[in-house]
């Protein structure tokens, strides 16, 4: 069966003859699975450890460089979040949370976003992986960076929301903006990517595109008419969907929307959020995508050959999230894995069939052809109003910094941290080996001077942040 929208004929999904000439950097911190939001909470960081175990046992590590990113520091988090909010996250614990009762209300930390042991460290791991991935993309050390611990798209400048505390995506995009004039953000989580949209709602430096359930559903934002304000007008793309969307109909709107964005916006880097709660059978989701239907979005984004940061996100049926992120890791390195799941540390989770596939159910698709065609036509009309070249001049984008050690870096310091930058960059991991990536010095992720000295080339973060606070209530509201 095939469907057509806007004159485009769409065939069933196929991943035949996958090829890979791109360099893949994969970020994983073994500590990430140690954190727990609490008994009965649907968000379980353990799913990232499950996905990693499958990735390793399928042998995908042989085609990637595996790194353990340095955790994000308070200073790095404050490039987007307020000092007061980050300081609160770094200090509050289950043992002292009574002392922060007012702050918990102010920063929306409590029920959905509980205080748990190691909260700040968990946020640091998530943020560090996305920032490090972006930094390596900037320096041309990889073509695709993967951080399944990232994708926490609901976090706001000074507020936790939707199980998200620190918005690693915004931090990663800010890193990319140091070298790229235009960045595209694509979100296939079942929930609207409100935190990322709000952060860049007033700028044309970033186009956000979210495909999500809309209508009496968290976070209650992402209406078709929400397209940005000021310089950001028409640079926020929202595609509201209804329950039960399946592989064919999802592809029928995803492909023409992304194709039009690429033609009109011409981004030089992409961030793709791969929330697994849009899969069929998710504990909190309401879509009906199979594993391959979800992965088709990853494969299509990859086909444009742009520097791409791939992050995780939602997903509350752990075995299906692990299956899908493993399959998508395979596609990114050019290897289709499955169908039988190899023995791994969490093999019993995948019974009784021990197959990699996540199959759709027989739930009704509430997205009619007429509805999807009407939404798609509106989205395409809005995109046609965008300027080809946003306000930034291509010639003024900062050049890649020279690969050299800072002058103050002694031989003793190099030896203590495990070798020089070039040594790490040239090092492809052995079986199961992890390493701390080193990105200190000029041009590295922690060279914050680049944010302050970027001049007219950089987005005016202070001005834009002020504008974000004035965003209409419809786009800033969140549901508990």
Chart the SSEs and their pairings.
Layout: E1 3-5, E2 8-10, E3 24-27, H1 46-57, E4 65-67, H2 74-77, H3 83-91, H4 101-106, H5 119-138, E5 144-147, H6 168-176, E6 183-187, H7 194-199, E7 206-213, E8 236-241, H8 247-265, E9 269-273, H9 291-302, E10 308-311, H10 318-333, H11 369-383, H12 411-416, H13 421-425, H14 449-452, H15 461-469, H16 473-476
Parallel strand pairs: 3-4, 3-5, 5-10, 6-7, 6-9, 7-8, 9-10
Antiparallel strand pairs: 1-2
Helix pairs in contact: 1-10, 5-6, 8-9, 8-11, 9-10
Pfam families: Hist_deacetyl (PF00850)
Keywords: Chromatin regulator, Hydrolase, Nucleus, Transcription, Transcription regulation
Biased composition (Basic and acidic residues): 424-433, 442-455
Question: What does this protein structure show overall?
Answer:
With 480 residues, the protein is an alpha/beta fold. It has one domain (3-396, 458-476): Arginase, Chain A, CATH 3.40.800.20. 32% of the residues lie in helices and 9% in strands. It contains 16 helices and ten strands. The strands form two sheets. The chain has an eight-stranded parallel sheet, with helices on both faces. Helix 1 packs across helix 10 and helix 5 runs parallel beside helix 6 (168-176). The longest helix has 20 residues, at 119-138. The protein is globular. The relative contact order is 0.16. Mean pLDDT is 85; it is low at 1-14, 393-421, 423-433 and 450-480.
């Amino acid at each position: 069966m095939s469907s057509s929208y806007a004159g485009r004929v769409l065939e069933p999904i196929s991943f035949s003859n996958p090829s890979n000439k791109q360099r893949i950097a994969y970020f994983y911190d073994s500590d990430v699975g140690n954190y727990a939001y609490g008994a009965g909470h649907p968000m379980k960081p353990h799913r990232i450890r499950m996905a990693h175990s499958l990735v390793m046992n399928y042998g995908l590590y042989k085609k990637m460089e595996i790194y353990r990113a340095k955790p994000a520091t308070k200073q790095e988090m404050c490039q987007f979040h307020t000092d007061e909010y980050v300081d609160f996250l770094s200090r509050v614990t289950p043992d002292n949370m009574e002392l922060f009762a007012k702050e918990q209300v102010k920063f929306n930390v409590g029920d959905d976003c509980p205080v748990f042991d190691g909260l700040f460290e968990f946020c640091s791991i998530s943020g560090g992986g996305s920032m490090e991935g972006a930094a390596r993309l900037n320096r041309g050390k990889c073509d695709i960076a993967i951080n399944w611990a990232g994708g926490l798209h609901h976090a706001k400048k000074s507020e936790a929301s939707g199980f998200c505390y620190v918005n690693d995506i915004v931090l990663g995009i800010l890193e990319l903006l140091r070298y790229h004039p235009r960045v595209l953000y694509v979100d296939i989580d079942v929930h609207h990517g409100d935190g990322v949209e709000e952060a860049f709602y007033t700028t044309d430096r970033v186009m956000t595109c979210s495909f999500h359930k809309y209508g009496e559903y968290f976070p209650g934002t992402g209406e078709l008419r929400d397209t940005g304000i000021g310089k950001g007008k028409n640079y926020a793309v929202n595609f509201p969907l209804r329950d039960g969307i399946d592989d064919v109909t999802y592809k029928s709107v995803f492909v023409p929307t992304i194709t039009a964005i690429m033609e009109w916006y011409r981004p030089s880097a992409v961030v793709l959020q791969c929330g697994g709660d849009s899969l069929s059978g998710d504990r909190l989701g309401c879509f009906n995508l199979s594993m391959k239907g979800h992965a088709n979005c990853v494969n299509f984004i990859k086909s444009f050959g742009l520097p791409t940061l791939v992050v995780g996100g939602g997903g509350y049926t752990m075995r299906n999230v692990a299956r899908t992120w493993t399959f998508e890791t395979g596609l990114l390195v050019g290897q289709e894995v499955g169908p039988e799941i190899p023995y791994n540390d969490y093999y019993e989770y995948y019974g009784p069939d021990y197959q990699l596939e996540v199959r759709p159910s027989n739930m009704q698709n509430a997205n009619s052809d007429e509805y999807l065609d009407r939404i798609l036509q509106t989205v395409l009309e809005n995109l046609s109003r965008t300027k080809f070249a946003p306000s930034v001049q291509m010639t003024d984008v900062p050049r890649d910094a020279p690969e050299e050690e800072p002058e103050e870096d002694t031989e003793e310091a190099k030896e203590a941290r495990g070798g020089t930058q070039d040594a790490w960059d040239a090092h492809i991991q052995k079986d199961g080996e992890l390493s701390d990536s080193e990105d200190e010095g000029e041009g590295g992720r922690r060279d914050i001077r680049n944010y302050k000295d970027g001049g007219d080339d950089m987005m005016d973060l202070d001005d834009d942040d002020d504008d974000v606070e004035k965003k209409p209530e419809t786009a800033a509201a969140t549901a508990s």
